Amino acid sequence: MDRHPYSLYRRNGHYIFFSCMIGLDKNGVLVGGGVGVETRQILKNIEEILSKHFDLDLSYVMDVRISLIDQADYEEMNQTYGSFWHPPNEYPTRECVVVKGLWSGARVAIKALASLNFNQ
């Protein structure tokens, strides 16, 4: 992942900005199995960064932007995505768009914004 001229995340003040991510495993290889598996991998990657570097979890994510290459993948992505947030945590705000294509053959990409002192 460090082959590219960007950061996976950057902190500025109380905010953590995540780059748009696809479902890459620890070896930088796109996971197979469809949009649900890719969505799960992306959210696990975000969760790992929050936990390892900031001692936070996904409940601190405030905003998410999701890009899909096929609108038909929405329900599968949404079901997987929804499984990562459980009441009483509120869902982050979200934008979901359909794009013409994503790099490396990915079906979904997610960009997130978290806050260090998010007051639920």
Verbal overview:
There is one protein chain. This protein has a single domain (9-115), classed as 60s Ribosomal Protein L30, Chain: A (2-Layer Sandwich), CATH 3.30.1330.40. The longest helix is centred in the middle third of the chain and has 20 residues, at 35-54. The chain contains 2 helices and 5 strands; from the N terminus they run E-E-H-E-H-E-E. Helix 1 (35-54) runs parallel beside helix 2 (74-82). The chain is globular, with a radius of gyration of 14 Å. With 120 residues, it is α+β, with helices and mostly antiparallel strands. The protein has helices at residues 35-54, 74-82, and strands spanning 9-12, 15-18, 61-68, 93-98, 108-115. The chain has a 5-stranded mixed β-sheet with strand order 1-2-5-3-4, covered by helices on one side. The mean pLDDT is 92.
Secondary-structure blueprint of this entry?
Blueprint: E1 9-12, E2 15-18, H1 35-54, E3 61-68, H2 74-82, E4 93-98, E5 108-115
Parallel strand pairs: 3-4
Antiparallel strand pairs: 1-2, 2-5, 3-5
Task: Give a short overview.
This protein has 120 residues and is α+β, with helices and mostly antiparallel strands. The protein is 24% helix and 25% strand.
In the CATH scheme, what's the topology name? 60s Ribosomal Protein L30, Chain: A
Query: Class by helix and strand content?
Result: alpha+beta
Shape: globular
Strand count, sense and barrel status of the largest sheet are: 5 strands, mixed
Give the averaged pLDDT, no decimals: 92
Q: What is the overall number of helices?
A: 2
Q: What is the name of the CATH architecture? A: 2-Layer Sandwich
Instruction: Determine the strand fraction and express it as a percent band.
Output: 25-35%
| Highest CATH level, the class | Alpha Beta
Rg, nearest Å: 14 Å
What fraction, in percent, of the residue positions are helical? 10-25%
Uncertain residue segments: none
CATH superfamily: RutC-like
Cα-to-Cα separation, first versus last residue? 32 Å
Number of discrete domains: 1
The secondary-structure element order is: EEHEHEE
Strand ordering within the main sheet = 1-2-5-3-4
